[in-house]
Every structure is written in structure tokens, then in C-alpha cells.
Design goal:
Membrane topology: Multi-pass membrane protein
Number of strands: 0
Largest sheet: none
Protein name: Cysteine biosynthesis protein CysZ
Shape: elongated
Number of helices: 9
Keywords: Membrane, Transmembrane, Transmembrane helix
InterPro entries: CysZ/EI24 (IPR059112)
Number of domains: 1
Main location: membrane
Structural class: mainly alpha
């Protein structure tokens, strides 16, 4: 299945109550994560301003510090949002994938793969690694903004796509098999990750990224010729 078709099928299912329930919960948590990142970054900027020498103190410095701190906090929150979404998506993989399979792949057997704890752990570990990489890239972005942004985009696209796909795949197979299937569809998975990173930079749309990304990853998994779901395809779907 093409990446475009997988994304379109995911968007078309937004009318499904079974998908909307995790969608609203994921959107609320994504908004809370962004707000928390913004607050932490803003507090950090405020502490830096408070540590300025006394001879720099004054209303002008306070105003400049608040304005610059707000801007830096917004940029830093956006910079760290993708790792937060990667970790967040793992919490909603089961209900989202189940809703997609129920509508588009009703002939599939019950999902028997890695345990739920293993799925959650894999997503959280990947999110933590991605967070560490993004933090490490901040100095590069400050010195060489273009290079830092390009590296962050490349790392984020790879990790986001891999995280979504493997989390969904682990519902039906073990971690080694999920990684092998992800490598087999590496270009589609990388494309999904790139779209997710771009969408994460768009206000409001970024709140839908976890659920839409998981739904599209489910279609890629079952639309692949090497998977059990791929033999049937979404032909049995309602309204697909």
C-alpha cells in the first residue's frame, strides 16, 4: 500500500467513534505535553535573566528577558515536541490499531504479539532516546541553525516513523519480526515519519499526529505484501 493511501484512509476514519475516543485523549495529552514543555523552557529562561549582573538590571532588561524567554520557550517546546509525541503514541497504539483493523481488516485473527508492557516500554524508550538526541542537538542548532534543524528533522523522521510502525506491528508479532518488517518497508515508514514531524510543527494539527500516525502505520503494516493482513488489503473496509 502506498503511503498516500494509508494517510488518506487514516484521515477518512476520523468519523469513527472508536477512533475519536483515543483521538481526543491523545490530543489533550499532546496539548498538556506542549504546555509543560513551554512552561519549563520559560522558567529556565526566567532563571537565566534573574542571574544577570546587577548593573544590567532594570525594566528594559526585564521586558527583553520576558520577550526573549517567551520566544525561546516556544521554540524549545516545539523542538522537544516530537520526542514527547513518540512516547505518547505508544499509549494509544492498541485502541487505534484495533479500530482500524475492525473497519478495514475484519478478517484478521485476534492480535497476539508482544505484551502491552513491551509495546509501552518500547515506545517510552524510543521517546527517551529521541529526547536525548534532540537535547544534544541544541548546541549545534544554536551555532549552525540550518545544520541543526536538518539533523533534528532527519532523526525525528526516522524515529517517529519507526516508533509508530514498530509499536503497531508488535501487537501482532515479536519485536525482532516488527523490526524486520519495518526495515522491509523502510521508505514508507521514513516517509510517514517525515510527514509526522512536519505536521507536528503545525498548531492544532500537531494534536492529531499521534492517532493519525498510528492509524496510517496500521494500514502500512497490513497493506504490506509480506504481512498476513496484506493479503486481504482494505478491500473489505466500509467506506474505504
Amino acid at each position: 500500500m502506498s503511503l498516500l493511501r494509508a494517510v488518506l484512509l487514516a484521515v477518512a476514519q476520523l468519523d469513527d467513534p472508536a477512533l475519536r475516543r483515543p483521538l481526543w485523549r491523545a490530543a489533550a495529552l499532546a496539548a498538556a505535553a506542549f504546555a509543560l514543555l513551554f512552561w519549563l523552557a520559560w522558567r529556565g529562561a526566567a532563571r537565566l535573566a534573574a542571574s544577570a549582573p546587577d548593573w544590567l538590571a532594570g525594566p528594559a532588561l526585564d521586558w527583553a528577558a520576558q520577550a526573549l524567554g517567551g520566544l525561546l520557550a516556544l521554540l524549545l517546546a516545539a523542538w522537544l515536541f516530537v520526542p514527547a509525541v513518540v512516547a505518547l503514541a505508544a499509549q494509544f497504539a492498541d485502541p487505534v490499531a484495533a479500530a482500524v483493523e475492525r473497519r478495514h481488516y475484519p478478517g484478521l485473527p485476534p492480535a497476539v504479539g508482544a505484551s502491552l508492557a513491551a509495546q509501552l516500554g518500547a515506545g517510552l524508550r524510543l521517546g527517551a532516546r529521541l529526547l536525548a538526541l534532540h537535547l544534544a542537538l541544541i548546541p549545534v542548532a544554536l551555532v549552525l541553525p540550518g545544520v541543526g534543524a536538518a539533523l533534528a528533522f532527519a532523526v525525528g523522521a526516522w524515529a517517529f516513523g519507526a516508533g509508530l510502525f514498530e509499536t503497531v506491528a508488535m501487537r501482532r508479532m515479536g519485536a525482532p519480526a516488527a523490526r524486520a518488517e519495518r526495515r522491509r518497508q523502510r521508505l514508507s515508514v521514513l516517509g510517514l515519519g517525515a510527514l509526522g514531524v512536519l505536521a507536528a510543527a503545525v498548531p492544532l494539527l500537531n494534536l492529531l499526529v499521534p492517532v493519525l500516525g498510528l492509524a496510517a502505520a496500521t494500514h502500512l503494516l497490513h497493506g504490506g505484501a509480506g504481512t498476513a493482513g496484506g493479503r486481504g488489503g482494505p478491500g473489505a473496509s466500509r467506506g474505504a
